[in-house]
Every structure is written in C-alpha cells, then in structure tokens.
C-alpha cells in the first residue's frame, strides 16, 4: 500500500470501529430500520451539498440499476441487518462476526473469477467457519431465539457486504468513489424507506438524536464510504475489506470499556481463529500485498 492508502485504511478502521457505539446510541430513538434509512439519505445529501458548494461535477458513468444493486447490498443488506444484530447480540459480538466479511468476499470473488483461492486459503475458510461456531455456540449470554436471530442477521449482513464489494469492484471501477457513494446511499435509502412501514420509528425524536445521526452519516458514512470505494478501486475488494479486522478490534475494545459488554474466553478464541483464517485466505504478507496493490482496477 502507498502512504495515502495506508492513511485511508487507518481512518476507516477508527471511524467504522467507533460507529458501533454511535449506532447503538441512534438505534434507540430511530429504530433499526430508521437509523439506516435516515443515515443513508443524510449521507448522500451531505455529499451532494459538498459537491454544489465546491462546484464539483458529478459524473456517475454507469446505469442507475448498478448503483441500486450496490445500495441494496452494502447499505440496506449490510447496515439494516447489522443494526438489528447490534440491538440483539451487542456491539462486541456483532463486531467479531464482521471479521467474516473477507471470507465471504474471497469465496464470492472466486466464483466470480475475481480472486483465486489457494490451498492455504481453503484452510483459512475452514478456520473461519470453526471460529464462527465457537463464537456463536459458546456465548456469555443464554442461547435464545433472539440471540440466534441476531447471529443470523450478522451472517446476512456480512454476506451482503461481500457481495456488494465484489459487485462494485466489477462494475463501478470506472466511477469515482465520491460519485459512487452519493448514488449508493441514495438508492440504499430509497430501498430501505418502505421497510419503515414494517418497523416504524419508535417515538418522538429529540434534537440530540438528530445531531447524533447526522454525525453518524457525515463521518461514518459519507467520509468512510468515499475512502472505502477508493480503496476497492485501487487495491481490490478483498484487501480493502480486510480493514474489518482492525474495525473488529476497535469495536470490541470500545464495547467492553464503554458498554461493559462481556465475552467468554471461547468467544475470544473463536474471534482469533476467524482472523487467523482470514489472514490465510488473504495471504497478507508484504510481497502479496505489494503484488495485489499493483494490479490495475477491473473495468
């Protein structure tokens, strides 16, 4: 990675890791569907406003339905299921399961002929599956139907993220990360909007609640997705998405310190096994990273 790409990577890890706490705060007043819907529209609107103020020309350069697919996966699928999981199983558990995204990304990339799974990669996928079983099967709380639904929601969230990332890599590589983020969040908000009929906003919303969701949208959606899509285009979906390892660490530490969430030693070990498996899948040694980073973006 180049120095600027490394800075983008670090910013993503810090902001996305902290976003679990902010999402936990905003789910209460807006609901787990409302927080994603309003977050998406605010994020898209803020970027459009920035473009107008700076007289930036927006050139989307791809059919609208491609952005809708990425919005349906990386915004609606990923964030709605994530929001549901956060309120069901907590930020620490949700954050550790987020680390499975690169496993799904590599498998999907293999079938789409974007990535190649090596022998070590297959071992890594097996370790990831084993770690997930340890994480879900030995929790610090009773295994209830709500707990299992939360874990299932996280699996759907990570799967959606992996699908959307690889799809963006294949079909939106020529579109700037700024323009991709605007369109992706707009269509994501549009797709999530009807879900409010099923899961409405719980009650009255205060000014502080609005301030928190604007902060969530501005710093942890608008900014981070611009950085993320830029990394996807420059170094590939799997390398870019490996930032979730660091995101997991940041979120688990914050969950333990701020929210006093508990994990069993088996779960901690399961999380470590998942990350080890992902490292094998990605082949994250310096030579592999250098070779991967030099590849031109796919059209």
Structural class: mainly alpha
Beta fraction: under 5%
Distance between the termini: 21 Å
Strands, count: 0
Global shape: globular
Total of DSSP H or I helical runs spanning 4+ residues:
11
Q: How large, in whole angstroms, is the Cα Rg? A: 18 Å
* Run of helices and strands: HHHHHHHHHHH
Report the biggest beta sheet as strand number plus sense, adding barrel if it closes.
none
**Low-pLDDT ranges:** 285-299
Task: Compute the average pLDDT.
Answer: 81
What portion of residues is helical? over 70%
Written overview of the protein:
The protein is mainly alpha-helical. It is 78% helix and 0% strand. The protein has helices spanning 3-53, 64-98, 101-111, 119-137, 145-171, 177-192, 207-235, 237-241, 244-258, 265-282, 286-293. Helix 1 packs across helix 7 and helix 2 (64-98) crosses helix 6 (177-192). The two termini are 21 Å apart.
SSE topology:
Elements: H1 3-53, H2 64-98, H3 101-111, H4 119-137, H5 145-171, H6 177-192, H7 207-235, H8 237-241, H9 244-258, H10 265-282, H11 286-293
């Amino acid at each position: 990675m180049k120095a600027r790409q490394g800075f983008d990577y670090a910013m993503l890890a810090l902001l996305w890791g902290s976003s679990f706490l902010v999402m936990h705060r905003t789910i209460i007043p807006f609901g787990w569907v409302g927080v994603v819907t309003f977050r998406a529209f605010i994020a898209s609107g803020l970027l459009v406003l920035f473009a107008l103020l700076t007289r930036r020309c927006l050139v989307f350069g791809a059919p609208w339905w491609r952005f809708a697919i990425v919005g349906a996966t990386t915004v609606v699928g990923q964030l709605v299921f994530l929001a549901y999981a956060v309120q069901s199983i907590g930020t620490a558990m949700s954050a550790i399961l987020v680390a499975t995204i690169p496993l799904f990304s590599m498998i999907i990339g293999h079938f789409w002929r974007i990535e190649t799974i090596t022998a070590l990669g297959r071992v890594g996928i097996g370790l990831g599956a084993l770690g997930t079983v340890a994480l879900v099967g030995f929790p610090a709380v009773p295994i209830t139907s709500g707990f299992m639904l939360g874990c299932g929601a996280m699996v759907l969230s990570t799967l959606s993220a992996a699908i959307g990332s690889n799809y963006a890599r294949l079909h939106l590589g020529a579109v700037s990360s700024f323009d991709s983020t605007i369109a992706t969040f707009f269509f994501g908000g549009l797709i999530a909007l009807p879900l409010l009929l099923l899961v409405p906003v719980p009650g009255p919303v205060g000014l502080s609640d609005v301030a928190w969701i604007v902060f969530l949208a501005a710093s942890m959606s608008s900014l981070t997705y611009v950085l993320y899509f830029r990394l996807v285009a420059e170094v590939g979906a799997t390398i870019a998405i490996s930032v979730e390892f660091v995101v997991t660490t940041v979120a688990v530490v914050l969950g333990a310190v701020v929210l006093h969430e508990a994990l069993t030693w088996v779960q901690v070990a399961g999380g470590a096994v998942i990350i080890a498996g992902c490292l094998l899948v990605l082949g994250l040694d310096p030579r592999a990273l250098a070779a991967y980073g030099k590849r031109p973006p796919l059209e």
